[in-house]
Fold this sequence. Notes:
Protein name: Phosphonate-transporting ATPase
Keywords: Amino-acid transport, ATP-binding, Cell membrane, Membrane, Nucleotide-binding, Translocase, Transport
Domain ABC transporter: 9-248
CATH class of the largest domain: Alpha Beta
CATH topology of the largest domain: Rossmann fold
Radius of gyration: 25 Å
Structural class: alpha/beta
Organism: Lentilactobacillus otakiensis DSM 19908 = JCM 15040
GO biological process, one term: amino acid transport
Bound molecules: adenosine-5'-triphosphate, magnesium ion
CATH architecture of the largest domain: 3-Layer(aba) Sandwich
CATH superfamily of the largest domain: P-loop containing nucleotide triphosphate hydrolases
Amino acid sequence: xxxxxxxxxxxxxxxVTFQSSGKQLHAVNKVNLQINKGDVYGIIGxxxxxxxxxxxxxxxxxxxxxxxxxxxxxxLLKLSNPELRQARKKIGMIFQHFNLLNSRTVLGNVEYPxxxxxxxxxxxxxxxxxxxxxxxxSEFERAYxxxxxxxxxxxxxxxxxxxxxxxxxxxxxxxxxxxxxxTDDILKLLKRLNEKLGLTVVLIxxxxxxIKSICQHVAVMDDxxxxxxxxxxxxxxxxxxxxxxxxxxxxxxxxxxxAQIKADQSLQALSANERLxxxxxxxxxxxxxxxxxxxELYKLKANILFANIERISSTSIGYLIIILSGxxxxxxxGINFLNQHGVNVKLLATEKKGExxxxxxxxx
Length: 364
Ligand SMILES: Nc1ncnc2c1ncn2[C@@H]1O[C@H](COP(=O)(O)OP(=O)(O)OP(=O)(O)O)[C@@H](O)[C@H]1O
Ligand SMILES: [Mg+2]
């Protein structure tokens, strides 16, 4: 294999085991992960999945219990301490809580990683100014971190992480403390740095939108393992694992809509000719007039409680929550019609004589 084809990050069978109150905790469990140079690679998972622990092995901030970490052709576990220090400089990191030095100016923060380098003060300042310009903060170089907004602080942290010209930037929930607009700005900045500097970006998040907006590849992590991975559009448009499906559903606000519907007392009292349905459809089905066909052909009424279409690359995934009402034979035929057109239909609630109507929220 030519060097250019080798992944820049190659985690081989990496495990991290912690001893926690006498028990072993497998925070990272035999993970293999290859990331190519120039990629923007997302790692998504719920809290405690092991994301931070995994990415901390990339620069050996977390030493694996077993396995091999190869970054830019170097086996990091075989390096001497000075060699490892050098290798770490090529791996920048940014975090949710910026970690800026409050006693130093913006410029001083960006200069900081260069203090141990053998370069002149003039060169150091010039470099820091250039980086501040790159992240759009030139006019704030004399400000102190406390005078900046969260988005501006993260830009300083990004500039600082680039001081040693890293090949890799690891972003651990760097946008989690920011509002949606600022999140978008920071993600666009990361994408621009990826394109302009050829920087490989590894980005951890628990939000699918973050992955969708800038990543090319994604790995879904659960309980220390990668349970699904691949091209972002492919993984999220056709999830193979229930957890991945959960991320897609919550990104389309479906999870929240279902919870609200469950809490709605008026939906606890459906009549005999009503069905509360959750419909999910993808691709071509999102472009067809299925609901008007359904109501016309079977003389049904559809009361739409929630509707959304999530677009992932060129695939659309549609979600509808409706109360469908009509005669029971026609209701059954109508549901059949939907199934035949590739719509996944889940009955959330129906009238149950003598029992309270039960709205299910499990949609996987
Ligand atoms: N130094 C440590 N000692 C003991 N247990 C740890 C240590 N660091 C992490 N863990 C445990 O390992 C598991 C994975 O933690 P990790 O921080 O990697 O998860 P995460 O996916 O990054 O979660 P979050 O989204 O909340 O940041 C958790 O159960 C955590 O409690
Ligand atoms: Mg974490």
